[in-house]
Every structure is written in structure tokens, then in C-alpha cells.
Amino acid sequence: MRLLAWLAAAVAIAPLIGVVVAAFGPGRADIAGADLIRYALTSVALAVMVAIATAVLGSVSAWLVVMHRFAGRSVFAWALALPLAAPAFAVAYGYADLFDVAGDLRSWMRAVPGIDWGPQMRSLPGAAFVLSLAFYPYVYLTVRAALVNQSAQAVEAARSLGCSPTQAVFRVGLPLLRPALAAGVALAVMETLADFGAVQFLSVQTLTTGVVRSWFVYGSLEAAARLALPLLAAAAVLLWIERVSRRGRTDEAARARWRPIEPVPLTGGRGLLAFGFCLSLLTLGLFLPVGWLAFNAIDISPDWSRLARAAGTSLGLGLGGALATVVLATCLALSAERMPVTARISSLGYATPGAVMAIGLLAPASLLWQGVPGAVSGLGVGLMLLIYAYAARLMAAALEPVEAGLTRVTPSMVAAARTLGRSEAGAALSVRLPIASGALLTATLVVFIDVVKELPATLILRPFNVDTLAVIADNYARDERLANAGWPSLMIVALTLPAVIWLTRKITASRPGDPHGPD
Amino acid sequence: MAPTDAIVSVAGVSRVYGRKVAVDRADLTLSRGRILGLLGASGSGKSTLLRAISGLEPVDAGTIAIDGRIVSSPGRAVPPEARRVGMVFQDFALFPHLTVAANVGFGLKGHADRDVTVAALLDRMRLADRGRAFPHTLSGGEQQRVALARALARDPAVILLDEPFSSLDGALRAEVREDLVQALRDSGASAIVVTHDAEDAMIMADDLALMDTGRIIQTGTPHDLYTRPTSVAAARLLGPLNLVEAEVRQGLAKSVLGQSATALPDGTAWMGARPTDLRLAEPGTGLQARVVSVGYAGAYRVVRATSGPHRLLVHVVNEAPAIGDQVGLTVDSPALLVLPLP
Lengths: 519, 342
What we know:
The complex is a heterodimer of chains A (519) and B (342).
Chain A (H helix, E strand, L loop, with lengths): L1 H22 L9 H35 E2 L3 H7 L8 H11 L5 H8 L12 H26 L2 H9 L4 H30 L2 H5 L5 H10 L4 H28 L15 E2 L2 H30 L6 H31 L5 H6 L2 H4 L2 H18 L3 H32 L4 H9 L4 H12 L1 H17 L2 H6 L7 H10 L3 H28 L10
Parallel strand pairs in A: 1-2
Chain B lengths: L5 E12 L2 E12 L3 E6 L5 H9 L6 E6 L2 E5 L2 E2 L7 E4 L11 H5 L9 H11 L15 H13 L5 E5 L7 H18 L2 E6 L2 H7 L2 E6 L2 E6 L1 H6 L4 H6 L4 E8 L2 E4 L2 E4 L5 E7 L4 E4 L5 E10 L4 E7 L2 E7 L9 E6 L5 E3 L3
Parallel strand pairs in B: 3-9, 3-10, 7-8, 8-9
Antiparallel strand pairs in B: 1-2, 1-4, 4-5, 5-6, 10-11, 12-13, 12-15, 13-14, 15-21, 16-20, 17-18, 17-20, 18-19
């Protein structure tokens, strides 16, 4: 089992080493220093804007839903995370089309109210707007968990020490949330730096678009790898922030004296405002852009057979990627107590953009392609490489729920299984994994959702003629055929939405400290 | 304890974590069909020793033999699943994803008579109607009986129980303890019970081993150990103790509490008396003391008194004095314990 854990760690870490080796390789790397700096500055500016916006949107919505009672609160509790089902590029297509100068909305505005103005989506602020709406659920979910987890006693203690209700929130409540906020924002920024489809479509040049373009336009692995290096460094820093924040997270719910915070009823105008805010967020993040894509897509008749093939590929890669990742992450988790450093190192992949991961795999991949001739085996190797890239990138995303699920198995349960005749592997199969089975399903769905939405690594590594829905959407969008891009985008949402609904309902229905609750 | 009838023999076993010696050259023998209590404060190494016997922990020195076969020695350990031990854990460690019957039958995988054995065990443990229940729906006492039935199912050579009552309290604890002892006796199993509770240990065990800072400091029957401890640490493990300094001269120890024959060499020693062995007497008789507190403990009263530098604890069944009263304290000579300085 430990051997498998080492293998899992090697899978996660090998592409990162590949990037570093390629970056310092002898090949040509014709990137101007000025370009590198421009790309980096754009990435930083975008990350800062998204960080601020997701922090505000995610924490305000979590604060409203957990601490207050108003109409629709119980639905918003899980529905506010639904934008996770839509890939960021689909949100970008929707908004770019909606506010296009020649689009229906702007034409109508010019004709009827006589206003010729609309937000410029193909700009840095436009990209920040789109990515903030796509990624605020990361902050919402972590802050919500921290708020639910918080015991009323901390705030009550502050009240008994002379704080007014408002002072108690600012002096005790908010500082307790800081670690969760930092962790959520770190996740949103990781996703922002990793995004390719949305920023590329909105004509914003970031390091990640630079990596993909260096490879596709200039065919330069070295240039791509050199652009990837700062991303790798940023990934390490963000992962470190996320981990440190987690350490600081208080776990009041695990304590016996935990009592839930009693929500404050919001009536009249305040209740309406809270309802309006949550509904607007959900509308802007999911219903409006996806609805607009659907509205435009209805008019055209897509190439159904191509879409069906791509949907099959997306589904197959999603399931294959999810299974491979969860199996490897489970091996790692089962041995994690004995090899904690290995488990942590392999988490680095999660913060690493897919494009960087793919670049790291290109050098070994080309060796493989040369070594395995023939179309069929070439296709097989290509698909395996893709699944490898997904596993390396998403190992940590799977590892976290699996580890959490395994904590429900006490050391004495494992010891009991051993004294009752099971070997270490037998105890894992008969006790540890069945008890953590809910967590394994959670991990599988998390990876599945991410794989189906994945674009840059798929673009770089996919075998010739293998299209996923994301790739088709990207192809159409590059040709400005947004109505056509709508169909594959909508199909991605259709594939991921059930999983996202199941996951968010499960997460938000859990009662803190419940030993029989969700993993 | 007849060594020839030993089912578990622990000889010179040590277990070291870095610089901490958790178990230090421990010797222990469990005789067939008997219940051995391993009593010690938390951190004394008793659970580590139990885990070493079960095979969950390796040993750094010494050997452990079960039913005449060496199962642990440095660098070599028969895995737990091949040792014929059954273990009952502090938190019971029932598998939450399995029913009661499946928990009990867990160790009987592949046995043809599994269902029959499980049914018989459930019946014996008064759990016949709970076979389909899941562990979290059971009471604490029922959970423990399931844990014991599960451990007994494979007909182990020895049952190991790690703090079996620590998650229970009050009246339930006494009731469960009686049930457990009865079930163990009925099964005829040999058992080692680890506990930090002197009362649990003395009531349950045929033989006791006292453990302190990794060492087995004394073994014997509960009565022997209670009445004839060989060290202050052993005496304190079995209950509260009043200690005063004594002088030993030619086989006789003398202190403010009285005098008692001893085999200790001449010099200074400790003299001890249990709170139940001290008696209140009229002022002027015995050791003169002043009552500083009186507490009510149901069946008896807890009286604290001072006499010069000595603070003394007395358990009084009859009428208690008032705070501030001057009293005399006496103790029968056979009840006096003369113990060496550490």
C-alpha cells in the first residue's frame, strides 16, 4: 500500500519537476522580458481584483444565509454554490455576447431608451467581473462552513465581557472567520491564475494564456515552461496560505459545548434586501450568462453527432480521471499518517494551473509518442496522459475529502479489525474504505466536475481528433460563433449540475460535529 | 499463579519512543482461565503493554508468549491477526457501517458455522433481539456487550480489555462491570483488563499487576496488594493513603500513628494508614488533631484534620465531628503499612 502511495505522490510531483527541467533546458525560449512582466502584472492585477470581489461576495452571502432568517434562505444555502457547475469560459461567453456592441441588448438599448453604453467585457475589469462571479462560491463555502461551525458561546462570552452585539461581531466573530476567508480567497485566486478559457476569450493576456500560446503559436516548450515558473511559485505560495489558514481554523463544532448561532430574523425591507442580494448573485453567476447562452443556442441547430461524441469523451474522461485520481488519493490517504510530507507535497498540483501541468508532461509525453508508434496505441497513450494530468492536478482536491472521511475511522477500529483476523490491507478494505465510502463518492464527484470543465491541459495534451465539450466550445468561441459555443457549454452544465447540486446539498445539510453526518 | 499454567507470559519487555521509556522490563504472567487486572495511572505504560501483547505494538526488548508460542521479540512480531487475541477497546470500536450481528461475525469470515456462532453469542450476551440494529442505536452497556461478543467470537486464547469502563459512568458503570465479569467467567476466557480505577481492578480481577512509570511494581491478589503493598506508589494506586515519617529500629517501625513490626533495615521509612483504618477517639487518646473540614460522601463522611505538619484524611461511617473540634486518631497495628522511602 505504501508503494502505491509513493506512486501517487510521484504522479503528482513529476509534471512539476518536468516544468522546472524544461524551463532551464537548453532550447530556445524567445520570450521578451517585457512580455513576461506584462503577463505577470496582468495576472497579479486580475488576481487582486478577483480576490477582493470574491471575498466580499462570498462572505456577505455566507453571512446573510447563516446568521439571518429570510425568505428562501434554506434554498440559497445550497443554491449559492451552483455557479460551480458552469465553467468560467461559459460565463465569459454569456456576458461577452450579452454586452456585445452589435448584440441584441445593446441594439435594443440604442433603439428604445437611446443609450449607447454597456460594460466592456473584453477587458481586465470585464475578466475580473466574470471570474469573480464564477469563483465566489469557493469563498462562500469556506466562510459558510466556518460560520456554521462557530459556536454562539464565543460571541456570548464577548457580550458578557462588555461588548455590544456589533462590537462582539467585529472583535470576536470576524477575526474567527479570517482563516476561512483566507483559505476561500486562496482557492479563488488559484482558479483565477489557472483559468485559460475565459481570459483568453476576453482578450486578457495572463501568464496562463502566455503558456498556452507559447506552445501553440511558437511551439516552444522552453518558453512555455519559463512562463509557467512564476505560476508554479505562486501556486506554492497560495497552497501555503491555504494550509496555514486551515491550521488557524477553530473547530468549535467538535467540542461538546458547541451551540449553533441563532439566526436573526430579517423582516420587511431588510428581508427583501437579503433575498434580492442572494438572488442577484445567483442570477449573475449562473442564470443570466447560462440562460443567455441557452436563449441564443435555441435558434441554431448544432452538429449533434459531434456534440454527442464530445459529450461521451467528456463523460469518459471525467469518470476515468475521477476514478484514477480517487484511487491514487485513497492510497495516499491510507498511508498519510505514516507519510504526511508526501501527502502535502502531492497537494502542490492542485494549485498548479492545468496548462502548467500539461507543459510539465509534454517532454516525457513526446518520448512516449515516439516510443509507441501507431494511431491506436498513440490514442491510448494520449488519453492516459490526459488522465495523468488530471490526476496530478486534482490529487489534492480528492485527497481532502478522502482524508476527512477516513478520520471517522478511529485507530481502535483499525486495531479491532487487526485483532479480528484482518491484515493491514484487509482492515482497509473491510473497515476503513466502507466507512469512508461517502467521502470517496464526494471526492469522485469533485474531480469529475473539475475534469469536465477543464480546458487548457486538455487542449495541450489531447490526442489528435479527440474533442471534449470544453474544447469544442473553445473552438467555436475562437471563431466568434457564440451561439454554437452555447451548446457544448450548456451540455457541460447539464453534466456537472446534478453532481454540484448533490454535493452542495450534502455539504450544506450537514450539522457540525455530527459523527454520522456527511463527510 | 502457577507459571506452568501460563497462557500469556511477558518477560523483560521494554518499549521505547525516542527518549521515553513507555514500558520498562515488564514481567507478567496470566494463568489460564483467570482475569488479570493491570492497574496504573494514565501514562504508566499499561495500554502500551496491552497493545504489545495484542501485536499492535512491537517490543524493543524481552519476549511475549501466548499459549507457549513466542509472538513478540525485538525485530520479530506475529501480526495481531495471527495471535489468537480478542480485544475490547476503550471506545468499543464497533464498526458503524455494520449491524450488531455483522460486527460480532466480523472475525468469522469464511467460517461455515458463522451464523450459528453469532446467534449463540448474541443470545449469551442478552442481545438476541439486537442483531439487526446498528451500533449507534445501542446503549453504552449493550455496545460493550457487542464488543465483548465480537472479541469472543474467534475463540481467542486471551481477551484483552483496554479501560473497558472509562466511557461509562455512575450506576451504569457498576452494572456493566458486573455483566462483563459474569460474561467473562461464563466464557471461561483468560483475560487481561487494563484500568486506572482501583475499584474496577479489585472487583474484577483474580490477580493484579500494578504499573508505575513503565514498570510492573508489584503483582499478587487484590487483597494481598491492598493490605501488603511493598511501596508507596503501589499503596497509592489502590486507594488514598495517609503517610507520616517513621523510624525503624531492629525490626520495629515507630511513628506518630503507632508502631508496627517490619523487615525493613534500620533508618527512616514511611508509615501509612488507609483513611478507613483511622478511627476517631476522645481527645487525649492517640494522635491529637484538629478537624479542618468535613464532607458528606453518602455512605461515609470525609474528615480532614491536621496534626502539626501532618494532614490526615479519615473516612467516618458514624457520627462526624464538627470543624474545629480537637480529636484523637488511632489505628490498629495490623492496619499500619510500613513502606520504604522511594
